[in-house]
Amino acid sequence: MKTEELFDDTENNEHTPAERAAAASRSTWVSVVVNLALTAAQVLAGLLSGSQGLVADGIHSLSDLIADFVVLFASHHSKKDADEAHPYGHQRFETGASLALGALLAAVGVGMLWSAVHKLEDPASVQRVHVIALWVAGGALAAKELLFRYMLAVAKRVKSSMLVANAWHARSDAASSLVVGVGIIGNLAGYPILDPIAALVVGLLVLKMGWQFGWEALHDLMDRSADDHEVEAIRETLVSSPGVIGVHDLRTRKMGDMIVVDVHIEVAGAISVEAGHDIAVEARRRVLSRHRVLNVMTHVDPRRATAPDAPSAVAAAQ
């Protein structure tokens, strides 16, 4: 799922970059506390109960903890104002963080797959687990699902793809805890091999999630345009501006969770340069106030009126 598909409106004039960074910081610190507790509980319980799946889930929680600090780092830098070296600001720190989260998830997934396959190669080494592992897996599932819902709500409210990535990282943990719980139940029912199989499935889920977020972030770093719905909304704002007759060559590119716009606007050819400039300034102001747009570069084109009954060039030549 593309992160912009979660943003269900095309205008946003409620949250400044500073407010978005503050929301990211608050939600991420909540995640830090939850993941720190889960990592300790899952790894310890997994080692004591003999559950490889629970240990793998604990390592996944540890990767969430590392990801949280990546988000905090990116949030701190992305809210910096533009400077001489970064005239468009630092919003792409968020995109870089999403790419780092994707790479981290992929690496963790590969590690889990390697460990699970190694265990499956020697089924005799798989031991029965203690029932405490099931209780810990159930508690982790509930905690991660609640964390996901909280973080996704914050991400949608402030429209942050970085927070969306981190929220779905928490959801992948919830899914992995569910799989681990099923594996533990199977182990307790007399099928020990189901525990490393659960660890294998967790690894695949984590790897898939890492690929998705890394691929999305990579496209944004290559100046991917905003989605069609948002581009059309920006076009409508420009066309509805006083004095604007038409719009063409509208181009957009992602800058973190903001958008940079280049556009040609058409004005009456008979007006003065100053009047055309004022029309462009007002059109730009409207776009900046109504949409998640960082900057609008406008080029003013004159539209010359043609008299319908004017003689053609060929007739004039005759």
Automatic annotation (TrEMBL):
Identify the residues that the record assigns to the Cation efflux protein transmembrane domain, covering every copy. Answer: 29-222
Q: What family is this protein classified in? A: Belongs to the cation diffusion facilitator (CDF) transporter (TC 2.A.4) family.
- Residue ranges, compositional bias (Acidic residues): 1-11
Question: Which organism's genome codes for this protein?
Answer: Paraburkholderia kururiensis
Q: What is this protein called?
A: Cation diffusion facilitator family transporter
* Subcellular location as annotated: Membrane
Span-the-membrane segments of this chain are 96-117, 129-152, 173-191, 197-215
Looking at the keywords, is Transmembrane helix present?
yes
Chain intervals for the UniProt region annotation (Disordered) = 1-20
In terms of SUPFAM superfamilies, this protein maps to: Cation efflux protein cytoplasmic domain-like, Cation efflux protein transmembrane domain-like
